[in-house]
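Researcher: Next entry in the queue.
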Amino acid sequence: MSASLPERWRQHLALDRRRSVHTVRAYVATAERLVAFLEQHLGQAFSAAALARLEQADLRAFLTARRMDGIGNLSAARELSAVRGFLKFVGGEDARVPQLKGPRVKRGLPRPISPDEAIALAGDIAETAREGWIGARDWAVLLLLYGAGLRIGEAMGLQGDMLPMGDTLRVTGKRGKTRIVPLLPQVRDAIAAYVDQCPYPICRGEPLFRGARGGPLSPALIRRAVQGARGRLGLSDRTTPHALRHSFATHLLGRGADLRSLQELLGHASLSSTQVYTQVDAAHLLDIYRNAHPRA
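Model: Structure for this entry, 296 residues:
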């Protein structure tokens, strides 16, 4: 039975939760490592019955073994998040999953989160959602913030009028100013997966993102979900929904985007609002120089 559990989880993640190919591959690899470790560690086949007997010390031993493989704090936190999801899948919603605090990621000066951290954050929130469609919803919202640079209020303001989706999206920002932003295929796919799973009809003139009871989704719920995920992943307290938009801007600038284009994408009223990202990027580059250059 144990050999089939990771494969069953693969099908669950891909078909029921609509996770990306990258996420499915990473989470299933973690499940396979966990099963192999526990069968050797416990001296018996891993099963739902064995799960009921797992203790904190067993999971701590697994993470210790992974750290000996050379993974860092963020990877260890992501590994633990995947482990929790897998164990809940094996044992059901009422499974007793041993609680283990994840490693803390070293905090430094304010800076954008990395692409890996952004995806880990969104993936953790989606996987720990109480229902599959809610996980798909939160995944889509967070990808809009990181992949399209939307403010959380702008994402909450989207309506069914945007469907069917194209390559761009018209966004209404502060003071009613509208702008056009491109939609990456991954963002379009995430929104489409959410729409397919949402139990409430999404019509023109009605909110795109719905709460559990069908009303408009509150930004506070997304902020609360991000707060929980950053604790589980050991990310900085500065990892907020707005930090995803901030990271979108900084990463684009680092890849050669000019300030005027960035200003339009972000919906800033003045160029001075956009210029702050040049300072952040310079500070980040200076940190890299100090840490990596032999004569720094």
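Model: Strands lie at 168-172, 178-182.
Researcher: Noted, moving on.
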